[in-house]
Amino acid sequence: MRFDIKSQYLPTFSPIIPYQKEEIDQDHWKVSFLVPGISENNLEVTTIKNKIIIQILDNEEDERYFDFSPNSSYLLDEYMKVKEVRLKDGILQVDIEKCLPKELKPQKVYIQTNNKKK
Fold it and tell me: Which three-class secondary structure state does DSSP give residue 71?
């Protein structure tokens, strides 16, 4: 998996975990965060309204030095929801879906001609 080339130009200590965003379709995205050597027991992912918070928890047995902050947050657009989170081979994958309320979704309007609906 290739990460966003911009991440290699980040300063030595970046305030965010390096990530790559991929649009699956107009309502689905996959965001992959680079967290090498971190186990699922040392990761915490929380959502609050339109924010994802990723925390790397302290592990006294294993001292690591990161080029990024162990606590990062990312804003989502309105109506975005985290659907699934997976960790594999040092990559934390977050699936995001746009969940528009029914009243905001496009609706087909029927045209009547000669008392018939089309």
Answer: strand
CA angle at 45 for the pair 44 and 47, rounded to the nearest 5°: 140
Which residue segment(s) compose the domain that 24 sits in?
Answer: 5-117
Both tokens of residue 92? 């934390």
pLDDT tens-digit profile, the chain (118 residues): 333 333 333 333 345 678 888 999 988 999 998 888 888 898 889 888 888 888 888 655 444 555 566 678 888 888 889 999 999 998 999 999 988 888 888 888 989 888 665 5
What backbone phi and psi angles, to 5 degrees, belong to 101?
A: -65, 150
Please give the Cα distance from 44 to 33 (Å, whole number): 13
Closest CA to 71 of 83, 57, 60: 57
Total domains, the chain: 1
Matching residue, tokens 């998996």? 1
- What one-letter code names the amino acid at 64? R
